[in-house]
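Exercise 7.
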Amino acid sequence: MTGRHAVAVTGLGVRCAAGATPAALWDSLARCRPATTLHTFDAEGTVVYPACPMPGFDPAGYLTPKEVRRADRSVQMAVCAAADAVTDAGGLHVAPGRRAVVTGTGYGGVISQENGIGHPDVLYAPRLMHNAGAYWISAGLGITGPSLTVSTACASGTHAVGEGLQMIRAGCADVVVAGGHDCPLTPTTALAFGRAGAMVTECEDPAAASRPFDAGRRGFVLAEGAAFLVLERLDLAHARGARIYATLTGYGRTSDAHHLTAPHPDGAGARACMEQAIADAGTTADAVTHVNAHGTGTELNDLAEAHAIAALFGPRAVPVTAPKAVTGHGLGLAGALEAVITALSVREGLAPPTACLTRLDPRCELDVVTAEPRKIPNGPVISNSFAFGGHNACVVFDSPHG
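Solution. The predicted structure, written as tokens, is:
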């Protein structure tokens, strides 16, 4: 643990259905106000599922009309969220070569890909690139240090945040803009997940469609958006008098090596990932005050994660939150969005409630926070992401005041 730079979170930025700012996002979570609506995925109106599209998104003021034509919708959201995070941090107070960006995305320019099939234009390939977000952010923010993209499905955003932590610790950068983005609200994506049985396609009340850990859950709700954090060397943040949301103290990553789309049923990989992140943070499981769960609302994921949490911390031993009941599941975005939420939890000293949970699945031996935010003491908080391909990623945040 000695000799590593400590890392602060000094800026947050989001674009998603549950809020266009961190404050609006937190308000939606605290009030258990799901962002899910019935969404028409195709022009013919034949694909209509519950989803979390962002209403009224407009990149004007962040990108010129020409730049908008060159960038996929997910990249446009990424540029806006990253710029907001930097503004929230008060700027990037280091030389361009000491700045870095790490983006996470599961699907890249999937909207541009689907729209361009059969009639691609000259910008078709650049709009599809998974690393396009990293390019646009680095160019817009004058980042000439490392510029990387991670694509590990639904763990992408958390891996991006964790890799940003490692860059600062290793001395490769002093400030990292890290986060995730995905806009997968296309007919093909929706039909694929729906036919696989992973996504909710019908429900009487769209607002109650996403129900992590509930006995009546039926899958996840597809969402779009972007979320970014400014990670900064703690000593530099203190020196300039920055407002610090939290410290980022631990990172874990493992692989299930079990199945392409199903988690290991006993949650072995998930548990190992949490253990690794907690050890990396220099703390112990009994010190953890709150778990931000991946909590997709699919039976396989919820059961595997519940087994892992109960095995590591003890049954019902630690408060658990599942934000996807409000935000939906943004795939590569999800981990970064929940990193923002976890940093806000540390800042507020509160675990946000899990919406739409009416009857806890008795197989999930968890203390799931419901109804209203719950006060949590200062201490480490862990955020989980587990993905297709068996990718697991966890990050640990803590109070800057110890």
